[in-house]
Model the fold of this input.
Amino acid sequence: MSVDRDDVFKALDQVLDPVSGRSVVQQDMIQGLVVKDGHVGFVLEVPAGRGAQSEPLRKICEAMALGVKGVKSVTAVLTAHEDQAQAPHEHHHRERPKPAVTRQAPPPPAGLPGVKHIIAVASGKGGVGKSTVAVNLALSLSRLGLKVGLLDADIYGPSLPRLLNITEKPQSDGHTLLPIERHGIKTMSIGFLVKEDEAMIWRGPMVQSALTQMLNDVAWAPLDVLVLDMPPGTGDAQLTIAQRVPLKGAVIVSTPQDIALIDAKKGIAMFNKTQVPILGVVENMSMFVCPDCGSAHAIFGHGGARETAEKLRVPFLGEIALVPRIRETSDSGQPVSVSAPDSAEAKSFLDLAKQVAASLETAARPAPKIVIE
Ligand SMILES: Nc1ncnc2c1ncn2[C@@H]1O[C@H](COP(=O)(O)OP(=O)(O)OP(=O)(O)O)[C@@H](O)[C@H]1O
Ligand SMILES: [Mg+2]
Done:
């Protein structure tokens, strides 16, 4: 049976905000409510400073919505206003318009306490191996002795549950979520928290709140570096992350094909716009190394990423070969950097990690200006 959105609002209207005594619906605290195939999702937005203490209210809202006939699951994401000075009468509508993405860089966001550096692994194009590189880079940075966290910023297509074979749910103490530890690194993904088809229906505001929560309300500290596995593309979602997260720099992943390189340039341009330094470009699926005869074949061409990096005057961080073992170990949740630490593939990730670690120590270099033809 289908669930009526209004029925969910009616149920939530019975939940009273303990501070004001008024209904959460009347106060426009419920944002971005979506219903699909019995799955309900919404944001519970509370005034600034009330984030931590509002967890019980969030639970009540979830329980009330779950009581509506036909509802199979409910996810309520808690978010607090950032701006104390925000006028309450600004929120008259249940659905707020998407925040306008400006081309001007806003002031750099504040850092995360106890986390020294946050870096993004990104690309313009999907499927070039961002998640594979992010996981193996994180594990290799940990092999170098750094305290490492890995955050899956891909809400619509989380990869970490599969890549690290994680099926358990993170524990919460009511205020913070505890990251799940694997192979010595701390990890968090929306895929640990909700079922795949639940997050798929979320719209802009919920995605943003979920990301903010995974960043701010997870017990990451102490960390030397937090690696962000970015979603594919250079749209609003990516731009918002680049603007809102205090990034120390970005690693751009590209395959050697021209088409991927064009997208890599777009990725670089996006970080330029937001004044995030480019730590460098890595060429993934660089050469195919035949598992039988050991000979290398340049299936997608070779060296394109190095050329592009040189042209754009950003560092070239190295090549990762196209090796069946990389995919197999990823699929089985045992990344090559831990399952075959002495292999050539693991060594190439370790070399990448050394370069990234070194670039974190040097001062941020101003991003070069790029014009996309
Ligand atoms: N160097 C490699 N050798 C062999 N297979 C690889 C290599 N890099 C990535 N893959 C495989 O390619 C596929 C895509 O990789 P991955 O999921 O890391 O890409 P992505 O850029 O994160 O994708 P998306 O844009 O969907 O997030 C996976 O099946 C992965 O195992
Ligand atoms: Mg990915």
The chain has 13 helices and twelve strands.
